[in-house]
Design a protein that fits this description.
This protein has 3 helices and no strands. With 95 residues, the protein is an all-alpha fold. It has a domain of 64 residues. The chain is flat and about 70 Å long. The two termini are 53 Å apart.
C-alpha cells in the first residue's frame, strides 16, 4: 500500500510541523487524505482484478465441458444431540 516514496517520507516531518503551524496542519491533513485515498483505490483495483480472474477461470471451465468448481455446503449451526448424562455434569469437572 505504498504511494510514491516522497509523500510517505514527508508525513513524519509534517506531523511535527503541524503542531506548530497552521499551513503544515492543512498540508499534513491533505497528505494523510491522499494516502487513505491511495489505499482505497488499491483495494478496489485488487478486488476488480480478483473478480476478473474468477470470471476468466469460470469461462475456461465452461469451455472444457461444463466443469464447475464444486462449492462445499456450509455447515449448519444446529445444536448437537441432547445427552442428559452430559448435561447433569458441570462443564469444567472432568473425572
Amino acid at each position: 500500500m505504498s504511494t510514491n516514496g516522497e509523500t510517505m517520507n514527508e508525513l513524519p516531518y509534517m506531523a511535527a510541523l503541524a503542531q506548530r503551524h497552521e499551513w503544515a496542519g492543512r498540508e499534513y491533513a491533505r497528505l494523510t487524505a491522499d494516502i487513505v485515498e491511495a489505499r482505497l483505490t488499491a483495494h478496489a483495483r485488487s478486488a476488480e482484478r480478483a473478480a476478473r480472474r474468477r470470471a476468466l477461470l469460470r469461462d475456461r471451465l465452461d469451455r472444457l465441458g461444463g466443469l464447475r468448481a464444486v462449492r462445499r455446503p456450509r455447515r449448519s449451526r444446529r445444536p448437537g444431540l441432547y445427552c442428559a448424562r452430559a448435561a447433569a455434569r458441570p462443564a469444567g469437572g472432568a473425572r
